[in-house]
Specification:
This protein is an alpha/beta fold. It has 17 helices and eleven strands. Helix 8 runs parallel beside helix 9 and helix 11 crosses helix 12.
Length: 373
C-alpha cells in the first residue's frame, strides 16, 4: 500500500502526525468534519471554535503553509510501506478490528507487520510483571501454550518478564501471537526481544503499534499502548503483578472497555502477587486452569471436550523417590531449611538437589530451590 495510491490514507497520516492531535482530539474533529482531509483544509477560526489549543492550531497552520518536516515523515512511512508484510489501517477502514473500534479512544492509525487477519481472531490479553518471581514466567509460558492449543490467540506487550514468556508460549505451541508495541515497529523495545519479534512474524504472527515506524521509546507511550492490548481482546489475564505494576493499568482499562478481567493468585508472602490479589478482591475472575478463562469467555474447550480424552482413565505420575521431595513445593526454600526439615547433612541435600535438577524436576533461583511447574 503506497501513500500516492490513497489521498485518504495520506490525510489520516498527516492529521495523526500533528502535535496535539491525539485520538480524543481527532475524534472530536471528525464529529464536525466528514474526513481528515476536510479537517486539514478547514478555516482556522472554525477550528478554534471547537476548543483546540493555540499550539495545535499553530501546527495546523504550519501544515497549510507547507511543512517540510511533515513531508519527510510522510515519505518515511511511504518507504516503510514498501516492505513485505507492512501496512497501515485507518480507523475508517472496513478491516479495522471491531472490538478495538468500540473503546473510548481507539487509535486512529495502526501500523502492522505480519498477518493482519489475526486482528479479527478471538484474543486473550496476557500481561504481568517485568520482574516476575521464580515461577511467574514459567506459569505464563505454560498457560499461553495451552490457550493457543485451545484456539485462543495470545496478545501481549512484548515487555520483559511475563509478556515475553506469553508470546514464547504461543510460539511453543506452533501458533501465532500478537505483540503490541509502545514504540515504532522499526525500534524494537526492549532490544533483547529482537529475536522474539522476528520469530513472531516468521511464524505468522503480527506486530502492532499506533506509533510511526521510526518512533523511539517514550514513557507515556506504554500506558497508552496498554489500551490497545486490552481493546483487541475478549478479556485480560494478569498472571503476576505487584501493586505498582503497569499490568494493573491494563486490567483497569479492560474494565472500562467492558471486557473480562482474570487474575492468578500467588503466595501471600510474594510482593509479585499483591496486585493480582487486589484485582481478585475487586471481582476479577480467579484463574487456576485454562478452563476458568474459556468457560467465562464461552469458548469451546477443544482439548477437554474430546470424548476419548475425557473417558481415558488418568494415571497419576509416580512421585520421585528423593527424600527431599516431600519438603519441596512451588515456593522456593533454602538448602539450610531443607537440611533441617529432612534431617540430612548439607552435603547430602546438595547432592539430592543436583540429581533432581538433572532430572528436570527442581529449579534453582536466587530465592532458593523449588519444584518446576
Amino acid at each position: 500500500m503506497s501513500l500516492s495510491s490513497s489521498s485518504s490514507l495520506q490525510a489520516w497520516l498527516t492529521l495523526s502526525f500533528l502535535d496535539g492531535v491525539g485520538p480524543r482530539t481527532m475524534a472530536r474533529l471528525l464529529q464536525n468534519y466528514p474526513s481528515p482531509a476536510d479537517v486539514l483544509a478547514a478555516d482556522l477560526l472554525a477550528l478554534q471554535s471547537l476548543g483546540l489549543r493555540p499550539a495545535t492550531l499553530n501546527v495546523i497552520q504550519r501544515y497549510q503553509q507547507g511543512d517540510v518536516v511533515l513531508s519527510r515523515r510522510l515519505d518515511a512511512v511511504h518507504q516503510w510501506l514498501e516492505r513485505p508484510g507492512c501496512q497501515v489501517l485507518c480507523l475508517d477502514s472496513a478491516d479495522y478490528p471491531a472490538l478495538l473500534r468500540r473503546i473510548p479512544d481507539p487509535p486512529p492509525i495502526l501500523y502492522l507487520q505480519g498477518d493482519a487477519r489475526l486482528l479479527h481472531d478471538p484474543q486473550l490479553a496476557m500481561v504481568g510483571s517485568r520482574h516476575p518471581g521464580p515461577h511467574g514466567a514459567a506459569t505464563a509460558r505454560q498457560f499461553a501454550r495451552s490457550f493457543t492449543e485451545n484456539g485462543l490467540l495470545i496478545t501481549s506487550g512484548m515487555a520483559l518478564g511475563i509478556d515475553g514468556a506469553c508470546h514464547q508460549g504461543a510460539l511453543d505451541a506452533g501458533g501465532q501471537t500478537i505483540a503490541v508495541w509502545g514504540t515504532g515497529l522499526d525500534n524494537c523495545y526492549p532490544k533483547r526481544h529482537r529475536a522474539l519479534a522476528s520469530a513472531i512474524v516468521e511464524q505468522g504472527g503480527l506486530l502492532v503499534s499506533e506509533q510511526p515506524p521510526d518512533a523511539f521509546a517514550q514513557p507515556g507511550q506504554f500506558p497508552r499502548r496498554n489500551r490497545i492490548i486490552s481493546g483487541l481482546s475478549l478479556g485480560t489475564l494478569v498472571v503476576e503483578a505487584a501493586m505498582n505494576s503497569g499490568s494493573l493499568i491494563t486490567a483497569r482499562l479492560a474494565l472500562e472497555q467492558n471486557r473480562e478481567v482474570f487474575a492468578m493468585p500467588g503466595s501471600i508472602h510474594s510482593v509479585h502477587a499483591r496486585g493480582s490479589h487486589q484485582l481478585l478482591r475487586e471481582g476479577a475472575h480467579l484463574v487456576e486452569t485454562i478452563s476458568d478463562v474459556l468457560e467465562v469467555l464461552r469458548l469451546p474447550l477443544l482439548a477437554a471436550i474430546d470424548s476419548a480424552s475425557a473417558n481415558r482413565p488418568e494415571t497419576a505420575p509416580a512421585a520421585p523417590r528423593s527424600p527431599l521431595w516431600p519438603h519441596l513445593g512451588h515456593v522456593p526454600v533454602s538448602v539450610d531449611w531443607l537440611g533441617q526439615r529432612s534431617e540430612m547433612p548439607v552435603e547430602r541435600v546438595m547432592q539430592e538437589l543436583m540429581d533432581l535438577e538433572l532430572e528436570g524436576l527442581v529449579q534453582h533461583t536466587s530465592h532458593g530451590y523449588s519444584r518446576l511447574i
